[in-house]
Design a protein that fits this description.
Elements: E1 15-19, E2 30-38, E3 41-48, E4 51-58, E5 61-68, E6 79-84, E7 88-93, E8 99-109, H1 112-129, E9 132-137, E10 143-152, E11 156-165, E12 170-180
Antiparallel strand pairs: 1-5, 1-6, 2-3, 3-4, 4-5, 7-8, 8-12, 9-10, 10-11, 11-12
Length: 181
């Protein structure tokens, strides 16, 4: 594995926030949407610049995951966990109702060459799998990407996200499973 020689002062300000409620789309600048209805559940995915939102709903129960760069504008009502997206973390929500939820967070800072190769690979992956994604350039004309890859199963929704930021070569990956209990 390659480690970036860039300053560690480049920090991710992203947070993964877990809610036991739905969030309103006006809270986010949406770049794309996808709705999956499968069996007993519904999953709605929104892609944003450097983030995403996933709402999972079954029989009137709701769980929402939001990865956002600046969470100051999000409500506290219904918030059950907020994790900084830096390093490696795991979170499992206690099974106290009809929805099970588990997620992992991983961040890496890549060298310029490795970042560019990863970016190209992820763009190829997005188009091959018809994933929900948004690509843009940042203030320093570096290529950035947010991507959601989703798999539906009888009682589970699996979501992998990749958020790539050219400044600092940051790659943020989350893997989440929503489950009908």
């Amino acid at each position: 594995m390659s480690v970036s020689h860039k300053s560690s002062s480049t920090k991710s300000t992203c947070r993964l926030m877990v809610y036991k409620r739905a969030l309103h789309p006006e809270l986010f600048k949406l770049e794309g949407r996808n709705l999956q209805r499968h069996g007993d559940y519904e999953g709605e995915m929104w892609i944003c610049r450097a983030g995403h939102v996933v709402r999972f709903q079954t029989e009137g129960h709701v769980m929402t995951e939001a990865v956002v760069d600046n969470a100051d504008h999000l409500p506290e009502h219904g918030l059950v966990s907020a994790l900084p997206c830096l390093g490696e973390k795991e979170y499992e929500h206690p099974r106290d109702d009809r929805i099970g939820f588990v997620t992992t967070i991983q961040t890496e800072f890549l060298t310029d060459n490795l970042y560019r190769a990863t970016y190209r690979e992820m763009m190829d992956f997005a188009t091959e799998t018809d994933s929900l994604f948004h690509a843009w350039t940042d203030n320093e004309d570096a290529n950035c990407l947010s991507l959601l890859d989703v798999q539906t199963f009888k009682k589970e929704l699996h979501v992998q996200s990749y958020h790539l930021s050219g400044i600092g070569g940051l790659v943020l990956r989350t893997q989440s499973i929503f489950e009908v209990c």
